[in-house]
Design a protein that fits this description.
The structure holds two protein chains of two kinds. In chain A, the strands form five sheets. In chain A, strands 10-9-11-8-12 form a five-stranded mixed beta sheet. In chain A, strands 4-1-5 form a three-stranded parallel beta sheet. In chain A, strands 2-3 form a two-stranded antiparallel sheet. In chain A, 40% of the residues lie in helices and 17% in strands. By secondary structure, chain A is of the alpha/beta class. Chain A is globular. Chain B folds into three domains: 37 residues; 221 residues, MetI-like (MetI-like fold); 62 residues, no CATH class. Chain B has a two-stranded antiparallel ribbon with strand order 1-2. The longest helix of chain B has 31 residues. Chain B is globular, with a radius of gyration of 30 Å. The chains are: A alpha/beta, B mainly alpha. At the A-B interface, helix 1, strand 2, strand 4, helix 4 and helix 7 of A face helix 3, helix 4, helix 11 and helix 15 of B.
């Protein structure tokens, strides 16, 4: 095979993709629908109900962007993407936005030429153990057998963590989260390790969740967020400020219940700017003045979406923790709307 | 004394054979306990069978069909005091989603109609008692299928169909002048028609005479439906392509032979999943952005090419099994190459190959689940999507059993049909 020909074709295709993606917003508006890539099913983050309507935390980000553009949370088509196909689907323009539990890393941002619009969810790798093991800290796990998904960053994190703490472990390789649950329940391993959000979802499915605990140690940083292609800053801004609007709304106490009332005008200038009663922030984004108001009234603010999909009231029951607002000891912090 | 006789004149009543020589006792002894080794094996197997079934059968029979979540299922199970019970409520709630995927609910009837018409279309191929005129419908069916499943304007499929008319006309007109030129035109002109003319023309006619109905995008065609669509088209296209490749591999023409061998050996040397990744990922990069080359069509092409290569080798096996005399018989009757193939060689070669051909069909059909890896939500991918719902998180066996059952029905029917065909075509009267 003549390699230069292949690379030539790749370059041409890459150039074509680069020029064509200059105005995603116009493409989306012309189409009348947002194409959003989500995961192929993860409890709390993306799943279809019996009627095929998608719901979940990642899905809410898609719906919020669709609402910002069209004022309609249903003007979005969801494409379930596997981890192998997600980046090519975004790069080729099959989807306009990828909201698929994707960790923000240097190489994905720089080398793969994507732009992360922010951090929607601070995740990290944790450990799930049966209570009867009598373990209260990950430091007590010396010599344990650990169920671990092969070929993932979690596998490397685990090796690093045990080496730095001078402990031994015996890995039990698994392929999928589903297999991990089964192996762990069957007693093939003492410990199951993966992202703590997935651990919480897994534990929630057990017949007796109280017999299992998630250990307090989080051994890795997994900042998950929506991402778009490099090179279309306007579109990137829309996604970034959609997420920021949801976070700011929670901080300012704007909820789906009171947004209609607050949009009539308040004494707080930032609320007025956010909801479009004051200033022209929407216009600067190329959107309508009430874009953020629409997001809050149909999708809700960050806290509402969190509570509805993964919060402590749901079977998954993830505490806010790092995902709390900065005013409440968490890390969610939006730049000001000004 | 004359009536005294040493020969019995009336028959003794028939007696049952000794207890150990008939009925169930004989069957048991000959089949299960015909020696101490076999007896031990029988007992061991029976014990194992009991152990397995004692767990599975109650679980299955106690299956719970009510409730809207796994939690409710577990509550009902405890309420009924059952040790273990399957939670089939997930099937009751989601069966239509598993079969039709994201296909719009109010259009299910179109998919069902397409399936029913599929059986009508293939009936003249499967059974020779069906009127031959149905072949006309078979020829139209692929376009009808596209119109039923994808919807949209009726002029698209009609214009695609017209491409064949263009080819036929070109051949009729030009072949009177020059046979070779006519053949070439019959290939080239339809392709030009499909690529450059059919689309705009269909659009133009549609703007004047809009006949059509709700269109469905390819990304909503999922669930078991996608397996049937890809499987059936793969089966229908790979057999003729396989025959051509098998003949090409045996051809005396050097270029044809080398190309066929090259293709077959390349495709057989590559796993199907690799070809699917090429269809999904590489073509995405190679094709200019905005090219509307449907992902389902891409997958169909790859699946067809893949199974055609295997098909070619199977048919080559059938060809090789024919005695040399059959070829010579064709020659001595004065038949040319194609006549001999059509009348003598292929009917026999295909008959020999039926079991392996059907084996490839079944394999192809099951391989369609691999599309889950390239983000097409087939029935297997849907088990994961359903499990991602908090209501059904943690449910495994019930979904997998349903999927296995659906596939088993299809594959078992294919296998039974092939046995029927073998019996029907049996001409050696031993």
């Amino acid at each position: 095979m003549n390699k230069s020909v292949i690379f030539g074709v790749l370059t041409v295709a890459g150039l074509a993709a680069g020029t064509a993606s200059a105005a995603t917003l116009d493409d989306v508006k012309a189409r009348g629908k947002l194409n959003c890539g989500v995961t192929t099913g993860l409890a709390g983050f993306a799943s279809p109900d019996a009627n095929g309507n998608w719901e979940g935390f990642d899905v809410d980000v898609c719906r919020a962007v669709a609402t910002a553009v069209f004022g309609d949370p249903n003007a979005v088509d969801f494409t379930p993407l596997t981890s192998a196909t997600r980046f090519s689907a975004l790069a080729s323009g099959e989807v306009d936005l990828l909201s698929r539990i994707t960790t923000w890393t240097f190489s994905r941002d720089v080398d793969l030429k994507f732009e992360f619009a922010g951090i929607a969810f601070y995740d990290g790798q944790g450990f799930l153990v049966p209570k009867e093991l009598g373990v209260s800290s990950a430091k007590d796990l010396d010599g344990a057998t650990v169920c671990i998904q092969t070929g993932t960053t979690t596998e490397l994190n685990l090796a690093d963590y045990f080496r730095t703490n001078k402990m031994e472990y015996e890995p039990v390789p698994i392929e999928t989260n589903a297999e991990g649950q089964q192996q762990y329940l069957a007693g093939a391993c003492d410990v199951y390790t993966t992202d703590s959000s997935a651990l919480a979802a897994t534990r929630a499915t057990f017949e007796n969740p109280d017999e299992h605990v998630v250990l307090p140690e989080i051994i890795s940083k997994e900042p998950l967020g929506p991402l778009v292609r490099h090179g279309d800053n306007q579109w990137g801004d829309i996604v970034r400020w959609t997420l920021n609007a949801m976070i700011t709304a929670e901080e300012l106490g704007v909820t789906s219940a009171n947004v209609g009332e607050l949009a009539g005008g308040t004494d707080n200038p930032e609320i007025n700017r956010l909801l479009g009663t004051d200033g022209n922030l929407g216009e600067q984004l190329g959107l309508s003045a009430d874009w953020a108001k629409n997001i809050i009234s149909s999708v809700g603010n960050y806290g509402e979406s969190f509570a509805r999909n993964v919060g402590s009231e749901t079977p998954i029951g993830i505490a806010r923790g790092l995902n709390g607002l900065w005013t409440e000891g968490g890390l969610q912090y939006s730049p000001p709307f000004r | 004394m004359s009536n005294l006789s040493y020969v019995r004149t009336d028959m003794l009543p028939e007696q049952a054979p000794p207890a150990g020589q008939s009925g169930i006792a004989l069957w048991l002894r000959t089949n299960l306990f015909s020696g101490w080794v076999n007896s031990v094996v029988t007992v061991v197997v029976l014990v194992l069978l009991y152990k397995v079934l004692a767990d599975i059968l109650p679980w299955f029979w106690n299956g719970i069909w009510v409730g809207d979540s796994l939690t409710e299922c577990r509550a009902i199970r405890d309420e009924r005091g059952l040790e273990s019970a399957a939670c089939f409520s997930v099937i009751r709630e989601r069966w239509s989603q598993l079969l039709f995927g994201f296909y719009p609910k109010h259009l299910y009837w179109r998919a069902i109609l397409a399936l029913v018409l599929l059986f009508v279309a293939i009936s003249p191929i499967l059974f020779d008692r069906v009127p031959r005129k149905l072949f006309m419908f078979t020829a139209v069916y692929p376009f009808l299928l596209v119109f039923l499943i994808w919807g949209g304007s009726i002029w698209g499929p009609l214009m695609a169909m017209a491409g064949f008319g263009v080819g036929y006309l070109a051949y009729k007109v030009i072949a009177t002048q020059n046979a070779l030129l006519g053949l070439i035109a019959a290939f080239i002109l339809p392709v030009i028609w499909w690529i450059f003319i059919a689309g705009p023309l269909a659009g133009a006619i549609h703007s004047v005479v809009p006949i059509g109905w709700e269109a469905v995008e390819s990304k909503f065609i999922s669930g078991f439906m996608i397996s049937v669509i890809i499987g059936v088209s793969g089966i229908a296209l790979s057999l003729p392509l396989g025959i051509v490749l098998a003949l090409g591999r045996q051809s005396d023409m050097f270029i044809v032979r080398v190309m066929c061998i090259g293709f077959i050996e390349f495709v057989r040397g590559v796993p199907l999943i690799t070809l699917l990744f090429v269809a999904q990922l590489l073509l995405n990069y190679f094709l200019p952005k905005g090219t509307n080359f449907d992902i389902i069509v891409r997958v169909m092409i790859m699946v067809t090419l893949f199974s055609a290569a295997y098909m070619a080798e199977t048919i080559r096996g059938g060809l090789a099994a024919l005695p040399r005399g059959q070829y010579e018989a064709g020659d001595s009757l004065g038949l040319n190459y194609w006549q001999a193939q059509q009348l003598i060689i292929m009917p026999q070669a295909l008959k020999i190959s039926i079991p392996s051909i059907v084996g490839i069909f079944i394999g192809l059909f099951k391989d369609t689940t691999l599309v889950a890896f390239i983000s097409i939500s087939d029935i297997l991918a849907f088990t994961n999507l359903i499990r991602a719902n908090t209501a059904w998180n943690g449910i495994y066996w019930e979904l997998f059993i349903f999927v296995a059952f659906v596939f088993w029905i299809c594959c078992f029917s294919m296998s039974r049909y092939s046995m029927y065909l073998e019996r029907k075509l049996q001409t050696d009267h031993h």
